[in-house]
Specification:
mainly alpha
Length: 126
C-alpha cells in the first residue's frame, strides 16, 4: 500500500472515529454532538467555517435517528415538538446566513462563549 492510500485510509478511520464520538454525544446530550463535531472535524483537516457547516449537515441524520429511537420509547414531549421545530428552523437559517458573513474569529468567539455558557448553566443552574 503506497503512502497516499495509507494516509487517506488513516483520515477515513479518523473521520469514522470522530463520527462515532459525535453520534454518541448527540444521543446522550440531546444535540450536543455539534459542540464536539466542530473541533473534531477541524482535526480531519476542514477549515473552521467548513467544519461548522459540515457539523450541521452531519447532525441532521444523527438527530433524526436519535429522535426516532427516543420516540419509539415514548421519551419526548409532543407539545413542544412543533414550536421548537419552528424556532430551530428559523434560528438555523439565521445562523447559516451569519456564518457566511462573520469573520472566523467572531465565529470562534461566539462558539467558545456559547459552549462555556452552556457548561456553566449545566453545572450551576440545573
Amino acid at each position: 500500500m503506497n503512502g497516499e492510500k495509507s494516509g487517506e485510509m488513516g483520515k477515513n478511520v479518523k473521520s469514522v472515529a470522530c463520527g462515532g464520538v459525535v453520534g454518541a454525544a448527540n444521543s446522550l446530550f440531546g444535540g450536543g454532538g455539534g459542540m464536539i463535531a466542530v473541533p473534531l472535524l477541524m482535526q480531519t483537516g476542514l477549515s473552521e467555517k467548513r467544519a461548522h457547516a459540515t457539523a450541521i449537515l452531519v447532525i441532521l441524520p444523527v438527530s433524526l435517528f436519535s429522535f426516532l429511537f427516543y420516540c419509539f420509547r415514548g421519551l419526548y414531549q409532543p407539545s413542544v415538538l412543533i414550536p421548537t421545530s419552528i424556532g430551530v428552523t428559523a434560528g438555523g437559517a439565521l445562523g447559516a446566513k451569519l456564518l457566511q458573513k462573520l469573520p472566523v474569529r467572531s465565529v470562534n468567539f461566539l462558539f467558545a462563549f456559547l459552549t462555556l455558557a452552556a457548561g456553566v448553566f449545566m453545572l450551576f443552574f440545573r
